[in-house]
From TrEMBL:
Pfam families associated with the record: MoCF_biosynth, MoeA_N
GO molecular function annotations of the record: ATP binding; metal ion binding; molybdopterin adenylyltransferase activity; molybdopterin molybdotransferase activity
Recorded superkingdom: Eukaryota
Cellular component terms per the entry's GO annotation: cytosol
Keywords of the record: Magnesium, Metal-binding, Molybdenum, Molybdenum cofactor biosynthesis, Transferase
EC numbers for this chain: 2.7.7.75
Claim: Metal-binding is one of the keywords in the record: yes
Protein name: molybdopterin adenylyltransferase
Family as reported in the entry's similarity comment: Belongs to the MoeA family. In the N-terminal section; belongs to the MoaB/Mog family.
Reaction equation(s) it catalyzes: adenylyl-molybdopterin + molybdate = Mo-molybdopterin + AMP + H(+); molybdopterin + ATP + H(+) = adenylyl-molybdopterin + diphosphate
Any GO BP: Mo-molybdopterin cofactor biosynthetic process
Length: 347
């Protein structure tokens, strides 16, 4: 099993082979896109000497006059390549008359669930022996939350021909396929077999040393004259949610050309003790600021952190990064400081 850091290194190294594409977009349509080239101001700001005040009849003119180009000089680099545009940056671009910018084309993503026991979440009543598919709509929603479109490729049964047909169809449009289910040792794991044997994909790893999310796979191969990527996430809902944040979203941001981590890691004080696991664990928690001490505190709402317990991700805005169990250290005590990944700024 690969440690998480090593798994991410493998992913990022393989993504260097991804053929990034640029598109020219109007500034007003480029929000949440990453620039692929620097932007230089086509004009000075202000374009003419202007008053800071509305009136200053009795005051020195020079004290309250903004000179031409005092904010932005003509030809000045106002934004660098690799920068993600937000409302702040688009406002700057609009202020100097930039109309279009070159940005990275977002990777096309497909989401699929696998398993004979899975059925659409909207079916009522629930057929006996079936499980509602929560992972697929969750992953689609998560992608959209972070600015990525995602095509829904439905549910595919545990049958090789069906899986092969699905991949051939989905990879025509998708750069990345994200599946959930069919990754554990006891599953009828046909996905990796079909991808390797029928489509020539390479398995980079199939197990990650983490909890939850051990049966996480990453593969890549060529189809339709382009490099394609596959993330196989566990079927348990919480495992899929955690690994999507830890492994998938950082990869998608890299594919856009953003090299900084999408989720900040901060130090927080935990509110209660927690027994450590033999694997490093990502514990769902809620962080907030202590106004008195100006420090971050994390509350573990639900100490039942089972990978099948969806209730444990309610109100979660942080994943605590707890170390693995050792003889010398068997638990985290209340008041200890640990590292946490901020996955949401608000709840």
């Amino acid at each position: 099993m690969l440690p998480v850091d090593e798994a991410l290194k493998v992913i990022f190294e393989e993504l260097k082979t991804y053929e990034k594409q640029s598109v020219l977009l109007p500034v007003d349509s480029a929000n949440d896109h990453v620039l692929t080239e620097p932007v230089y101001s086509p004009e000075p700001l202000p374009a003419f000497a202007a008053s800071i005040k509305d009136g200053y009849a009795l005051l020195m003119v020079t004290d309250f006059e903004r000179q031409i180009g005092c904010d932005v000089a003509m030809g000045e680099c106002i934004l660098s390549a690799g920068f993600r545009l937000t409302s702040s940056e688009t406002s700057v671009l609009n202020s100097v008359g930039v109309r279009d910018v070159k940005v990275a084309k977002k990777p096309s993503i497909g989401i699929v669930s696998t398993g004979d026991e899975i059925c659409e979440h909207s079916i009522n009543p629930l057929p006996y022996g079936k499980v509602r598919d929560t992972n697929r709509p969750m992953l689609i929603s998560l992608m959209r939350e972070h600015g990525f479109g995602a095509d829904d490729f439905g549910i595919v049964p545990d049958e090789p021909d069906s899986i092969l047909a699905l991949f051939k169809m989905a990879f025509k449009s998708a750069d990345v396929i994200i599946s959930s289910g069919g990754m554990s040792m006891g599953d009828r794991d046909l996905l990796k077999e079909v991808l390797m044997q029928d489509l020539g994909f390479k398995l980079h790893f199939g197990r990650v040393f983490m909890k939850p999310g051990k049966p996480t796979a990453f593969m890549s191969g060529y189809m339709y004259d382009r490099k394609k990527f596959f993330f196989g996430l566990p079927g348990n809902p919480v495992s899929a949610w955690v690994t999507a944040h830890v492994c998938v979203l950082p990869a998608l941001f890299r594919m856009e050309g953003q090299h900084c981590d999408p989720f900040p890691i901060v130090s927080v004080t935990v509110d209660s003790s927690y027994d450590l696991d033999p694997r490093p664990e990502y514990v769902r928690a809620f962080y907030s600021a202590d106004g008195g001490t100006k420090s971050w505190h994390a509350k573990i709402f639900d100490h039942n952190q089972s990978s099948s317990r969806l209730m444990s991700i309610r109100h979660t805005n942080m994943l605590l990064m707890l170390p693995q169990w050792t003889v010398e250290r068997t638990k985290i005590n209340a008041g200890e400081i640990v590292q946490g990944i901020i996955v949401r700024l608000h709840v």
